[in-house]
Structures are given as structure tokens and as C-alpha cells.
Amino acid sequence: MPAVVVEDLSKEYGRLRAVEGLSFTVAEGEVFALLGPNGAGKTTTMEILEGFRDRTAGRVSVLGVDPATGGRAYRERIGIVLQSAGFEEEFTVRELTRLHASLYPRRYQPDEVIDLVGLSAKRDARVKTLSGGQRRRLDLALGLVGAPELLFLDEPTTGFDPSARHRAWDLIHRLRDLGTTILLTTHYMEEAQQLADRVAVLRAGRLVAVGRPDELGDGGRPMSTLRFRLPAGISAGDLPALAGKVATTDGLVEATTAWATKDVHTLTGWALERDVELVGLTVGHPTLEDVYLRLIEEAGDGD
Ligand SMILES: Nc1ncnc2c1ncn2[C@@H]1O[C@H](COP(=O)(O)OP(=O)(O)OP(=O)(O)O)[C@@H](O)[C@H]1O
Questions:
Q1: How far apart are CA 213 and CA 217, in angstroms?
Q2: What is the pLDDT of residues 252-278, one digit of tens each?
Q3: d(CA 234, CA 223)
Q4: Residue owning the nearest CA to atom 29 of ligand 1
Q5: Pocket of ligand 1 (CB under 6 A)
Q6: Is 204 part of any domain?
Q7: Cα of 19 to ligand 1 centre, how many Å?
Q8: 78 C-alpha vs ligand 1 centroid, how far in Å?
Q9: Whose CA is nearest to atom 24 of ligand 1?
């Protein structure tokens, strides 16, 4: 049974359609990332799955439960790391982590969790004295101390310095190894590439694409990136029309395309005809960020 099933989910805030006809599933033990620009509907979707927001239409099942009616028994099985949780400022890190642990029937050792998130040195510090990044790590500790079967991570490393981010990634890998299903949102494509087994790209409340980070493409077609130097005496406007999107920066032409074979054929045919050399021509694998930007841009073409 999948850990999460979302079918034709919609959410309206008054006249605003924040989520529209969204469907996806997440397998047990999978790390699944929701990606999308600001306002795409990621947090709304996460909150509906967490059971903190009602939905307008659609079917949702998480760990075999409808979060809207799962109540406390459901909440004890999930962990939530919010973008900015309100803390009890006077508590110490250890006190607050212990308090949270006591709310859950299954739990990890609070001190071990504090070590895991890299807050050992701040164990006895009051929450109000923590830096922004340290607070985010405490968010993480509180979200996972209840040994959740499914962990929701909303932008888990925003505000982390690079080494803290890498440590958080290690931690998330470890949680996955323990069998925890993880749903995360992030604006860092490298993070999604590092962590997620699969990603879903949302735009304006709709699903644009879903798949493994290295296979994500246009309508299921994987993407490639073509690169070459603009030949001398040729301007970007002289190049033939390609199926992919072309950008020229400082004389370097880059095309992200789901039709690499066709576009290479068009380009080389054009170059041979004009007897120009496409210096440095490569066909490579685009980064998730390249693909993401392309998908978002294309999805916005109808605006
Ligand atoms: N409580 C609310 N009342 C009215 N509109 C809301 C509410 N919460 C969110 N929205 C709107 O719904 C849309 C989706 O918001 P949501 O927070 O789900 O986006 P997001 O993808 O998480 O964005 P971000 O990347 O900025 O966190 C936005 O247009 C937002 O303004």
C-alpha cells in the first residue's frame, strides 16, 4: 500500500484556486519532494496531508488514514517540521525536545536526536539564545523525536549554512535508511537532487511533471542540454529554430531540450550547409535546476 495517495485534490481559498486536480502517490519509505515557485500550492498540499487544513475536493489517504478525520492517533504517527515553528523561548533545547518526545508513544532518545541535528553544544541553551539556523535544527529535532512513520519537511534547510545543510542531508538519508517516508518541499534544486527518490513540480496549483530527479522531463521525455560556442560572424538570431529552449550568454549557446536527436540534426545540418564549426559541441545531462526552470517557464506560457 502506498504511504500517500492524493487523487484529484483541490483547494480553494475563496475564489483563489491554490490546488487544482492534483494527483500523485508516494511509496512507503520513499523520499518525495514537492517543487514549485512561490505560491504554487506546496504548503497548502502539505498542510492538507498533515491534517491541518481542509480540502475543497478530492481524495487523500496518508498511512491508510484520511488526515481530515485521523485525529490524534494519526498525528502521533507523523512528524512535522514547519517553516518557522513558534517556540517556547524560555525552555532549553533539551527540555523542549524531551517535552515533545513525551507527546509520542514511539520516540527516539531526545539526547540522541539533539546530537543527530548537531545541537549538542546547545543542549542546555535557552531557545531564545539560538541563532536562526540553530532554531531550524531544533525544528528538525522536534519533528523527528516522535519516531514518525512519515515525516513532513517544509523547506528543512532554509537558512542553514552549507555545512549544516550537508549534515541535514546526511540526517535525512539516515532517516530514510530507517524506513521513514519523507515528504519535503524545497527551493534548492541541489537538495531535491540529493535527497528525493522522486519529485513533483507544481505550478499555480497544478502538477507539471513528476519523476525521478535524473529522469524528469517534458511529458515523460527526458531532457538533454546542448552546448556550443556561437561561431564567429554568426549572431544568436541566425541560428536555426530548435525544439528546445535556447539561451545565449557570452557567446555560449545552451539549449535544454526533450528532442536532443532532432535538435542536433537540425543544428549540424545547418552548420554543414554554412560550413561553420560548432566549437565545443556537447550533448549532456541537464541539472535538475535546468529542467525545473524549463518546465516552469513552459507551464507559464499560457499565462
Ligand atoms: N490561508 C490562506 N488564505 C488565502 N490564501 C492562501 C492561504 N494560504 C495560502 N494562500 C494562497 O494559496 C496559494 C498557494 O500558497 P502556498 O502557501 O500553498 O504556496 P507554496 O507553494 O507553499 O509557496 P512558497 O514557496 O512561497 O512557500 C498562494 O496564492 C497563497 O497566496
A1: 9
A2: 999 988 899 999 999 999 999 999 999
A3: 26
A4: 39
A5: 13, 16, 18, 36, 38-44
A6: yes
A7: 9
A8: 22
A9: 38
Look at residue 31 and tell me if it is in a domain: yes
Nearest to 97 by CA among 125, 76, 75: 125
C-alpha–C-alpha distance, residues 99 and 90, integer Å: 13
- Judge if 175 and 31 occupy the same domain: yes
> Going by DSSP bridges, is the β-strand pair 31-35/198-203 parallel, antiparallel, or unpaired?
parallel
Q: From 211, 237, 265, give the residue that closes a domain.
A: 211
Number of domains in the chain: 2
Q: Which three cell numbers stand for residue 240?
A: 536555426
Atom 22 of ligand 1: nearest residue by CA position: 43
As a whole number of angstroms, the distance between CA 134 and CA 86 comes to 14
Distance from the alpha carbon of residue 242 to the mean position of ligand 1, in angstroms: 36
The parent domain of residue 195 ranges over: 2-211
Separation of alpha carbons 206 and 23, rounded Å: 9
CA distance linking residue 104 with residue 270, whole number of Å: 66
As a whole number of angstroms, the distance between CA 194 and CA 205 comes to 25
Same domain for 116 and 172, yes or no, is yes
| Sheet of strand 57-62, all strands in order from the earlier edge strand to the far edge | 16-26, 4-13, 57-62
Q: Rank 18-22, 222-226, 288-292 by mean pLDDT and report only the highest.
A: 18-22
Q: Give the whole-angstrom CA distance, residue 229 versus residue 276.
A: 11
CA dihedral over 21, 49, 114, 129, signed as positive or negative? positive
Q: Is 291 a member of any domain? A: no
> How confident is the prediction for the chain on average, in pLDDT?
91
pLDDT range class, residue 86, cuts 50, 70, 90 = low
In this prediction, residue 118 carries a pLDDT of 87
Q: The whole model's pTM is what? A: 0.86
Integer distance in angstroms from the first to the last C-alpha of the chain?
38
Cβ atoms of 171 and 126 within 8 Å: the answer is: no
Distance (angstroms) between ligand 1 centre and the Cα of 150 equals 23
**Residue 247: strand pairing partners:** 254
